[in-house]
Design goal:
α2 crosses α3. The chain has a 6-stranded mixed sheet, sandwiched between helices. The longest helix is centred in the N-terminal third of the chain and has 18 residues. A hairpin with a 4-residue loop joins β5 and β6. The chain is elongated, with a radius of gyration of 21 Å. It has 2 domains: 76 residues, 434 Repressor (Amino-terminal Domain), CATH 1.10.260; 195 residues, Endonuclease, Chain A (2-Layer Sandwich). With 284 residues, the chain is an alpha/beta fold. The relative contact order is 0.12. Helix content is 51%, strand content 12%.
Length: 284
């Protein structure tokens, strides 16, 4: 099921916790049976430390895992050790960005609420360059590397089985002219082209819409399919110097509810595209 090291590590950690709880064992009881500290079990169950095959063997014995379940977890351990394409950009992004890129790369469904700029997955090179170049003191080299990273992230939309992408934009996103009129017009046309794909939905919340719970807050929700999948939704709130990950189910659920409110306040996808087309035409 896992598609990259980040998702594999997270799925393994959540699986270990779910299996332990199903067996009715506390952290202390599990640690005692494995002859290690509760802190070590906690680190493995939160993904803060990797799980070795030797550890997994002991865990399988303690929890009574069958051969099929044991082998599935060993495969997750192998996948979690992988080196992914975004590692080459680790020196130019905020701490924690690898988790964002991994969840983005591996989630079957991505939803985003944006209040001021077009989401990175839907940006044109010209629009992205204008944004990246706006950072004070940034070098030309760094602009090119960050641009390459942003464009590489977009490759997932062109896969044979791309993720479902559900975007809610405030109308202000269309009115803020990033990079000049020509660049912004091209960006609007790009939104229209991307939204023509069956797996992409773009909605716009107009200025005269009712107030909703997500007002003024930008965030991304990564969701995973399947009743048997232990992966719960994860929310990312992107900031200037770091990204905040929210994986508590109740807190993440609040963001899902807020996003549903934004969708309700938005125009239909069809009317949203008409508004985007009109904006593109007006910028010529």
């Amino acid at each position: 099921m896992a598609t990259n090291a980040v998702v594999a590590r997270r799925r393994l950690a959540l699986s270990l916790r779910e299996r332990r709880l199903r067996a009715g064992l506390t952290l202390e009881e599990m640690a005692r049976r494995m002859e290690c500290s509760p802190a070590k079990i906690s680190r493995m169950e939160t993904g803060r430390t990797g799980v070795r095959v030797a550890d997994l063997r002991m865990i399988a014995d303690v929890l009574g895992l069958g051969p099929a379940d044991h082998e599935a977890m060993i495969e997750l351990v192998r996948q979690a050790r992988g080196r992914e394409w975004w590692h080459e950009f680790a020196d130019i992004v905020p701490e924690g960005s690898a988790t964002l890129f991994g969840l983005e790369d591996g989630a079957p469904a991505i939803s985003q609420h944006s209040t001021s700029i077009v989401p990175g997955l839907l940006q044109t090179p010209e629009y992205a360059r204008a944004l990246i170049s706006s950072v004070e003191g940034i070098t030309a080299d760094l602009v090119e590397r960050r641009l390459a990273l942003r464009l590489r992230r977009q490759h997932l939309l062109d896969r044979p089985q791309p993720p479902r992408l559900d975007i809610v934009l405030d109308e202000a996103v269309l009115c803020r002219v990033i990079g000049g009129a020509e660049v912004m017009a091209g960006q609007c046309r790009h939104l229209l082209a991307r939204a023509a794909a069956p797996h992409v939905v773009v909605r716009v919340v107009p200025f005269d819409a009712a107030t909703h719970a997500a007002e003024g807050v930008g965030f991304i929700i990564f969701e995973f399919d399947g009743e048997e999948d232990v992966m719960t939704p994860v929310v990312f709130a992107e900031q200037l110097s770091r990204s905040t990950l929210i994986d508590d189910p109740d807190e993440a659920g609040g963001y899902q509810t807020a996003l549903a409110g934004a969708r309700s306040a938005a125009l239909t996808p069809e009317r949203s595209l008409e508004l985007i087309a009109a904006r593109a035409a007006g910028l010529r």
